[in-house]
Amino acid sequence: MYDIDTDARLYSYSDKTILKRLMSYAKPYIPSFILTFFLMILAVALQLFEPFLIGESVNIITGDEMTIERLFGVVPTLAPVLIVFASSVVLAAVFEYLQTMVLQKAGQSIIYNMREEAFTHVERQDIEYFNKIPTGKLVTRVANDTQKLNEMYTDVLINVFRNLFMVVGIASMMIVLNARLAALVLIVMPFIVLFSIIFRRFARIAYRRVRTNTSRVNGFLSEHLSGMKVVQIFNKEDDKHREFDEKNTELKNAELRQLLVFAIYRPTMYMLFMVATIIIFYYGGMQVIAGTITAGTIVAFYNYLRRFFEPIQQLAEQLNVIQEAFASSERIFAILDEKPTIHDHEDPIELDDVRGEIEFRNVWFAYKENEWVLKDVSFKVEAKESVAFVGATGAGKTTILRLLSRDYDIQHGEILLDGIDITKIKIANLRSFIGQMLQDVFMFSGTIMSNITMREDSITEEEVRRACQYVNAHHFIEQQPNGYYEKVRERGNNFSAGQRQLISFARTLVHKPRIMILDEATANIDTETEEIIQESLKKMMNIGTMLIVAHRLSTIQHVDNIIVLQQGEIIEQGDHQELLRQKGHYYQLYKIQYEDQ
Question: Mean pLDDT, to the nearest integer, of 511-539?
């Protein structure tokens, strides 16, 4: 099975490629980023000035013995410095606020667009794609991984530049204050760079493991929560708990390895900070005693040093987030780069309407290479004709219906709609003429009304009511406390299988299809409900072309033509009475089902 977490291509994205693609999403918001960058420079510049003012304040206060006269002299001298200091703090806070607001708005817009693109791309994938990839992993990609990118855009991206600017600015201010002391302090820089490079390498690996294992846990949860009824029926709770425990343990270990990398890096940075602090107080103290520098300079230096390591440690955290964002980006791009195998013709045809004439000409099809499900199948269905497909499981009945709506493409032959090859018709246009009623009716959260209209605003309530009356669904819907606006719980589990099937009939009918497909639509229905559905089917046969797959032969006795399949080939054709007279394969199937009557 294809796995987006272990796909070899997943790890072929270079940092440069990832960064380039991420920046392409930010391109429309460049003015916002420029404004944010400008506000950031102003805020940082003011913050760089603050330690210098603190040092000057110390120089003003220290010195000769404090007398009343000197106190009055200190106050007028210190007042302007304090006013400038307070003003710089306030202005820096204002610039920080404006920067945050502008950046958050741009960042949220970028993530909104990315989620839209990811969801739209997934929507356009073919059916085989969803058979290969667990739903939980797709949810993780579209929801969780884009959230990791949100933090990068709204917090990390601009702050990386801010912290780099802060580091350069502080280093420059320290050199201006005392070049020799600055040179001694900055001797730790090569070690900072070395440890950061090592950290970056191990952090990337650690984050990949975390995201991979998170995806596996989500995939397991999605699958097993949906199938919990089966798990409980077969008393497999303990087995599934052990499976989950294994995956959860792998995720925990991956998280611990990630924390270990960061736990080593931060204390290393703190150790270097303490080394630089010792240098300042030892060498600087000696210089103060010698009278070559002032105490205020040492205070300013210490404040600059503290602020120097703050952005460096923040850079470590931001590298953490960037590595996580890059790991998430790889998975999002792996989805976006997965192209549908079913796609439109270079110059697709768009039809305004169709009669509903269907023809299969020498069709060969296999899900896996050389394992033929259909072998040279040919038949024709006239417009508004009803045709049923009968045969053992695996004979190719459902496959024929899937091929008509281009869920898959055939390997050989042609499938024609009104004489036009369906591969030349735009896929969305082709499917707009086809209504499908399946054995497992899926209902979305919302109301009965929204499930029938599929939130199509052009469909009126009167049209919905007429469709429901036509398919015999109106009676049970009206009995609901809120009628057509009764709430639908998850997967429609507050309705019986027969009720869900009748709602699906109304859903199909209200969208005015020219071709209707029923795939085992009555397989799970009780006898009483089946009679209601049989009556509905008879009415619907007058609307357009109808293709039916059914194991219950009672469902198809009134169709115009019955095609009997065996191992991917047509072995019999005709109406119900004709096939019974032939006493062939269909006759044997009918005899088995009704031998007790």
Answer: 73
Q: What is the mean pLDDT of residues 84-103?
A: 87
Domain segments of the chain: what residues? 8-336, 342-433+515-521+545-597
Where b means 16+ CB within 10 Å and e means fewer, 299-337 reads: bbbbbbbebbbebbebbbbbbbbbbbbbbbbbbbbbbee
In contact, 497 and 524? CB cutoff 8 Å: yes
Nearest CA to 283 among 262, 259, 265, 305? 305
Position 343 scores a pLDDT of 85
From the number of C-beta atoms within 10 Å of its C-beta (0-12, 13-18, 19+), residue 230 rates as: exposed
Task: With H, G, I as helix, E, B as strand and everything else as coil, classify residue 597.
Answer: coil
Identify which of 404, 411, 398 has the alpha carbon closest to the alpha carbon of residue 357: 404
pLDDT (tens digit, 9 = 90+) per residue, 500-524?
Answer: 888 888 888 888 889 988 887 665 5
Residue 535 corresponds to which tokens in the numbers above? 């009556």
- Residue 51 · residue 303 · CB < 8 Å: yes
Where residue 561 falls (left for φ over 0; alpha for ψ -120 to 50; beta otherwise) is beta
pLDDT at 1: 43
Is residue 201 within 8 A of residue 15, CB to CB? The reply is no
Residues of the chain with pLDDT > 90: what percent?
A: 22
| Cβ atoms < 10 Å from Cβ of 112 | 12
Q: How far from chain centre, in Å, is Cα 257?
A: 26
For residue 526, give Cα distances in angstroms to 363, 495, 553.
36, 14, 15
Q: Within a 13 Å sphere around the CA of 67, how many CA atoms are in the beta-carbon half? A: 4
Find the mean pLDDT for residues 532-536. Answer: 72
Amino acid (one-letter) located at 228: M
Provide the strand spans (E) within 179-224. Answer: none
Mean pLDDT of 168-191: 85
Is the pTM of the predicted complex or chain greater than 0.70?
no
Highest-confidence segment of 8-12, 222-226, 503-507: 503-507
C-alpha count within 13 angstroms, C-beta hemisphere, residue 513: 24
pLDDT in tens, 241-283: 898 999 999 999 999 988 888 788 878 888 888 888 888 888 8
Q: Which amino acid is at 174?
A: M
Q: Residue 65 gets which letter from DSSP? A: P
What confidence tens digit (pLDDT) does each residue in 301-342 have?
888 888 887 787 777 677 777 877 887 888 888 888 888 888
Q: How far is CA 57 from the centre of its chain?
A: 55
3-class SS of residue 588 = helix
**Dihedrals φ, ψ of 311, to 5°?**
-65, -30
The torsion angles phi and psi of 236, rounded to 5 degrees, stand at -110, 20
Superfamily of domain 342-433+515-521+545-597: P-loop containing nucleotide triphosphate hydrolases (3.40.50.300)
From the list 175, 189, 192, 149, the residue with the least C-alpha distance to 25 is 149
Within 13 Å, how many C-alpha atoms sit on residue 173's CB side? 27
| pLDDT value of residue 596 | 58
* CA 514 to chain CA centroid, nearest Å: 34
State how far the Cα of 496 lies from the Cα of 525, in Å rounded to an integer.
9
CATH class of the domain at 8-336? mainly alpha
